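User: I'm new to structure prediction. If I give you an amino acid sequence, what do you actually give back? Let's try with this one:
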Amino acid sequence: MSGLPTLLGVPYDASSSFLRGSAKAPAVIRDAMTSPSSNSWSESMRDMSAPGVLEDAGDVDFTTGDPRDAIESAARALLTTGARPISLGGDHSITYPLLRAFRPSCPRLTVLHFDAHGDLYDAFNGDRYSHACPFARSMEEGLVDRLVQVGIRTMNAHQREQAERFGVDVIDMRAWAAGVRPSVDGPVYVSLDLDALDPAFAPGVSHWEPGGLSVRDVLTVLQTMGGRVVGADFVEFNPDRDPSGVTAYVAAKLVKEIASRMLADDAVAVQ
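Assistant: Good question. You get back a string of structure tokens that encode the predicted 3D arrangement of the chain. For your 271 residues, that looks like this:
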């Protein structure tokens, strides 16, 4: 899989269990990415606003049909062009149809999942497609060969059972504090829920879960991990809970750095 990193807005939050608002996030993240308050360069010295570096395919069209089908179709259409989608959610339920789109072109796939929550419920409030369930659906359908979760701090008995059932590598915050770090290789898809971060760094999320990762923690993993990043999603940013705007800039920073990482992977591949 080759081609440019390409933004895909997924303004969908109908599967949220607590608060709506994340459907507004794609536009707000784009605004932060182009704000004159900072420059467009990544930490690895790439100008992400330069022509032919980072593309934008607009937003998924939800005006007709099933939303999950629309998300899968939009991502699959991008993948057929060789682009590597960086999806801007939206709630975390969007990851399941995104992974359905990726699977045909990634017969081997590791997902590196940053989150306060495991999102492994078999069903949540009676909804099997809730934003609390995308990785249960993805694992039982065989869309992922290895799931590595980082930042977890809301584990309960059911989700622990699900993690054991699916063979998930869980690095919860106690393990992180003890020095455990993720190890990944091969094709890697990054799914980053903004509530993986401590709310001190990213308050603009629907579920505040203290005791999380710092922005630098996440950046260090993204910049130094093994494997080749083939796609990513950024989810659960809720602008309604972000009056200062700081979370928008955190999201924009992370998007810029994952796109730069994709380009770095390309540079290594051609050496």
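You can read the tokens as a compact description of the fold. Here is one thing that stands out. The two ends are 16 Å apart (CA to CA).
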